[in-house]
Amino acid sequence: MSRTAISFIAFALTVFAPAAYPQPAHAQTAHEIVVNADKARNPDKPFRITATLIDYKAGRPIGRNIYSVYSKLDPATGQFRDVMLYVYPPRDAGKLLLLNGPNLWIYDPASRESVRISPQQKLSGQASAGDVLSENLAVDYTPQLAGSETIEDAEHKTRTCWRLDLKAAGSAATYNHIDYWVEKGTYIPIKAKLYADSGALLKILYYRNFLVRGGRAQPTQAVIVDAVDQTLVTTVDFGELHFQDLPDAWFTRDFLPHLKLK
Length: 262
What we know:
- The chain is mainly beta.
- 8% of the residues lie in helices and 48% in strands.
- It contains 3 helices and 16 strands.
- The two termini are 25 Å apart.
């Protein structure tokens, strides 16, 4: 997901039937559908969560990375600000990633320098920085309703969805455009196809392991599949959600050398 979000094996998760999900008000427009799906992916209060990424080649795990993500909604923009702490592997532990608006910075405590990077920069395997950090797609993209489709989700379960075409609305968007499937009635995101500026399909993302938290069903795992070599897969598992106050100063580049996270 672009910065996201989102999604993201850390613990056993329960899959709920769609009928059990609280249903928001009926959406009338493509924008309202995406807004409701954003609410399903992102809590509305500042939070901390652990993201565990596992890379696979032909079904065999070949790498693992762990990050702590701290996210807070910016009421001025409607977008999330994020600080991500590298936890594992040890060679990267202590590094920080900061997202504030369209700006993404990586800070290395060894050099005490921060360098601006792109949300498309890979973290691990098929996962880019923008796929793990929180985001509201309704802010970064302009959606159009492309119709309705019945598709299979990551568990090969049939879902009746709206299909939406999301076009990048500015430089903050991780991808040029996204094909996006949102389940009717529940407004939970099911699948996304992510495209480069050239129009080439880069990867396919599935949301799965939906857990009801804070009155809404939220996906707690994202499965990211390389569009060219589908034996290359990265799973992003989001662990237990912790709500906490996060000072605005944490989300500034100048404060990164002073930020002490665990």
